[in-house]
């Protein structure tokens, strides 16, 4: 019943013909292992996010997804651990991602960067560079032992934090990381690098996964913001390419204009 | 500062706006000394170009003096006199490295619209809608120039502003269009449109070795200027153009044909009326009369070169003729950066003085009146220059 209520709430908020409503229609029936209380709480959290979006406040998509998970986790006190990273680099030469599909929100995108693979790998390997092009990140603090502390944007100006560890690091080929137990949100990521022949630059293929219990509903709500997780990772990876090739991200913010 | 702002269709005004600041490390601030109104600015003025926002500062042909540089700009200093390409290019991407500067991957902060419409975004442009980056233009007292370490080029002190200003757009545009024709000695080049770009096509075709240039327009004042540039000029309203061209080239056709008209071609006869009806009913966005004629007239194995700007869809294009004759098509926004230094050298050697296209001079404060007059008296008004 809660699921029906959520469907109705989302549809009334987004309009019955909207993409969101259609996405909700395609959702599987509510999972039976959730108690009805939790479903009501999910609804409350989802409603908060939907309300945010509809009042014209537009937090970045991934932070909305993260935030949805955070609210859920705070309410339920449980954190579904995400362990299935599945990185296998032994003898692997073809690009593939380390983050499997399935539960949660998974985004993937590839760009070609006109720089040697060593430069591109080195820039990414310093996780402290990631907030320069990933919109949803506020700060990443890296320590020398492969561990790092991440702070991301959540809804309503909140911050979401987690510690992460590097699980795979093959120079100039692949880096994969995942959050550690006790994280505000379960997350994992991987990036593969392939140098193209004849000085054509480096293919960079990134996959990110955020695992909020709101699952697909979180993603559906996120599309309300106007930018899907797919278009956000696309923009982030464009900014990565701009930083690598041009040394800066082009902008017109702050330029003069008339009335 | 004062700047010419777009407010809506046929509505521009000089307003007081904040001075531009350095935003990115590779920026420079230029104090404008001379700027121009381009024929393509009239497309904005007439409301043909989507994604304009009220308050946008226009102008993509400008030059001036460096007053401030970001910390990553080491090749320019305060006081340098520079002319600035209208295309904005990073210099480091795959396309810039291939000298396809107008295809730069990294200059458009908002490429999504162009990607949706064109499949990929070309480079950003100054003062030319948010689809092309939304950068403030140079019809102002000051302008912010991104990637200033690869765009602006210093100009020799003995050349006047008016001699070098058009390196920003129309001279390289005409030159690249002629270069795209791969002119061989003895070639005949036909040029549709005798506006400023068309005139630079004519002069450039001769610089690159054409034996004959045929200029096509229906405005007598412009045909007169084309003749002054050395072309044989024909008024397409007075002849059956295709027949005339066939006769004048003794049956072979021009070796290459340049469409320097673009999306506002004013056709005559059935095809012209058909275009107007289609455009009026939004079934086609561009009216390609000149391009159709260029394809039909061009000799077998020849080149059709298109500096004229197109924005959307074309209708009733004689693709069969293009295929049957094995034509080569070359087109696109100008890779301005590539041409600045070689063309400055040509100006210095006295091979060309680009200031010949100027017909009107206004104060920047009178820019709104300049737009109005430019858009209504096309006959006499060829090129408008503004001085702050
Ligand atoms: Zn122009
Ligand atoms: Zn570039």
Number of strand segments of chain B:
17
Flag low-confidence runs of chain B.
Answer: none
The CATH topology assignment of the largest domain in chain A is: Alpha-D-Glucose-1,6-Bisphosphate, Chain A, domain 4
Q: Would you identify the regions of chain A where 5 or more consecutive residues have pLDDT less than 50?
A: 1-58, 72-98, 213-217
Count of separate structural domains of chain A: 2
Counting helices, strands and paired strands, the structural category of chain A is alpha+beta
InterPro entries (chain B): ADH-like_C, ADH-like_N, ADH_Zn_CS, GroES-like_sf, NAD(P)-bd_dom_sf
Family (chain B): Belongs to the zinc-containing alcohol dehydrogenase family.
Keywords (chain B): Metal-binding, Oxidoreductase, Zinc
Domain Alcohol dehydrogenase-like C-terminal (chain B): 196-264
Write structural notes for this entry.
Chain A: Residues 32-91 form the Inner membrane protein YgaP-like transmembrane domain. Chain A: Pfam families: Polyketide_cyc, YgaP-like_TM. Chain A: Belongs to the ribosome association toxin RatA family. The complex is a heterodimer of chains A (259) and B (388). With 259 residues, chain A is of the alpha+beta class. Chain A has 2 domains: 1-85, no CATH class; 105-213 and 225-246, START domain (Alpha-D-Glucose-1,6-Bisphosphate, Chain A, domain 4, 2-Layer Sandwich). Helices cover 35% and strands 22% of the residues of chain A. Chain A has helices spanning 2-14, 19-25, 36-54, 61-76, 117-125, 215-223, 229-246, and strands at residues 105-113, 137-142, 147-153, 159-170, 174-179, 187-195, 202-210. In chain A, a hairpin with a 7-residue loop joins β5 and β6 (187-195). In chain A, α2 (19-25) packs antiparallel against α6 and α4 (61-76) packs antiparallel against α6. The relative contact order of chain A is 0.20. With 388 residues, chain B is α/β, with parallel strands linked by helices. Chain B folds into 2 domains: 2-169 and 334-386, Quinone Oxidoreductase, Chain A, domain 1 (Alpha-Beta Complex); 171-331, Rossmann fold (3-Layer(aba) Sandwich), CATH 3.40.50. Helix content of chain B is 29%, strand content 21%. Chain B contains 13 helices and 17 strands. In chain B, strands 3, 4, 5, 8, 9, 16 and 17 form a 7-stranded mixed beta sheet that branches. In chain B, strands 12-11-10-13-14-15 form a 6-stranded parallel beta sheet, with helices on both faces. In chain B, strands 1-2 form a two-stranded antiparallel ribbon. The N and C termini of chain B lie close together (10 Å). The model of chain B has no long low-confidence stretch (mean pLDDT 93). The interface between A and B is medium-sized, with 23 and 44 residues. One zinc ion binds next to loops of chain B. The site of one zinc ion has 10 residues of chain B, from α2.
């Amino acid at each position: 019943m809660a699921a029906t209520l959520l469907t109705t709430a989302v549809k009334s908020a987004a309009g019955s013909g909207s993409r969101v409503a259609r996405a909700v229609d395609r959702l599987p029936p509510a999972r039976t292992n959730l108690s009805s209380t939790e479903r009501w709480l999910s609804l409350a959290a989802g409603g908060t996010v939907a309300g945010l979006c509809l009042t014209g406040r537009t937090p970045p998509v991934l932070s909305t997804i993260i935030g949805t998970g955070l609210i859920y986790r705070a309410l339920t006190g449980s954190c579904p651990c995400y362990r299935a990273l599945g990185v296998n680099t032994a003898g692997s030469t073809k690009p593939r991602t380390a983050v499997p599909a399935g539960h949660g929100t998974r985004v993937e995108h590839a760009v070609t960067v006109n720089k040697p693979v060593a430069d591109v790998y080195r820039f990414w390997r310093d996780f402290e560079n990631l907030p320069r092009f990933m919109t949803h990140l506020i700060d990443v603090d890296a320590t020398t032992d492969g561990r790092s502390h991440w702070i991301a944007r959540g809804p309503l100006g909140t911050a979401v934090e987690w510690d992460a560890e590097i699980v795979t690091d093959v120079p100039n080929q692949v880096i994969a990381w995942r959050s550690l137990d006790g994280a505000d949100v379960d997350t994992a990521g991987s990036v593969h690098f392939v140098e193209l022949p004849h000085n054509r630059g480096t293919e960079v293929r990134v996959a990110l996964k955020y695992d909020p219990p709101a699952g697909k509903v979180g993603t559906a709500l996120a599309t309300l913001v106007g930018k899907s997780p797919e278009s956000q990772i696309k923009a982030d990876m464009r900014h990565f390419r701009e930083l690598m090739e041009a040394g800066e991200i082009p902008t017109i913010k702050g330029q003069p204009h008339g009335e | 500062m004062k700047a010419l702002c777009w407010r809506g269709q046929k509505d521009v005004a000089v307003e007081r706006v904040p001075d531009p600041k350095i935003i990115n490390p590779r920026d420079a601030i230029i104090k404008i000394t001379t700027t121009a109104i381009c024929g393509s600015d009239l497309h904005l003025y007439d409301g043909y170009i989507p994604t304009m926002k009220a308050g946008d500062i226009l102008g993509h042909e400008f030059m001036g003096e460096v007053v401030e540089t970001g910390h990553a700009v080491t090749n320019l200093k305060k006081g340098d006199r520079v002319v600035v390409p209208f295309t904005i290019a990073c210099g480091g991407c795959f396309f810039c490295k291939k000298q396809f500067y107008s295809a730069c991957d990294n200059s458009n902060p908002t490429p999504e619209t162009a990607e949706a419409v064109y499949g990929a975004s070309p480079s950003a442009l100054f003062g030319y809608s948010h689809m092309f980056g939304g950068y403030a233009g140079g019809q102002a007292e000051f302008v912010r120039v991104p990637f200033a370490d690869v765009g602006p080029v210093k100009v020799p002190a003995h050349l006047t502003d008016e001699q070098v200003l058009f390196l920003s757009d129309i001279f390289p545009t005409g030159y690249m269009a002629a270069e795209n024709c791969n002119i061989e000695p003895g070639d005949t080049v036909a040029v549709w449109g005798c506006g400023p770009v068309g005139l630079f096509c004519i002069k450039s075709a001769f610089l690159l070795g054409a034996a004959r240039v045929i200029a096509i327009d229906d405005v007598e004042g412009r045909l007169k200027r084309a003749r002054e540039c050395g072309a044989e000029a024909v008024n397409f309203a007075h002849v059956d153009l295709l027949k005339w061209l066939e006769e004048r080239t003794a049956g072979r056709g021009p070796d290459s044909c340049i469409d320097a008209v673009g999306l506002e071609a004013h056709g005559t006869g059935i095809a012209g009326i058909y275009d107007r009806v289609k455009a009026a009913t939004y079934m086609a966005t561009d009216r390609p009369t000149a391009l159709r004629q260029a394809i039909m007239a061009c000799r077998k194995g020849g080149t059709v070169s298109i500096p004229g700007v197109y924005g959307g869809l074309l209708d009733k294009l004689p693709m069969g003729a293009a295929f049957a004759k094995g034509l080569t098509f070359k087109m696109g926004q100008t890779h301005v950066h590539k041409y600045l230094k070689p063309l400055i050298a040509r100006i210095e050697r006295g091979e060309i003085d680009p200031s010949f296209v100027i017909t009107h001079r206004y104060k920047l404060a009178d820019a709104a009146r300049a737009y109005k007059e430019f858009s209504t008296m096309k006959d006499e008004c060829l090129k408008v220059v503004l001085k702050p």
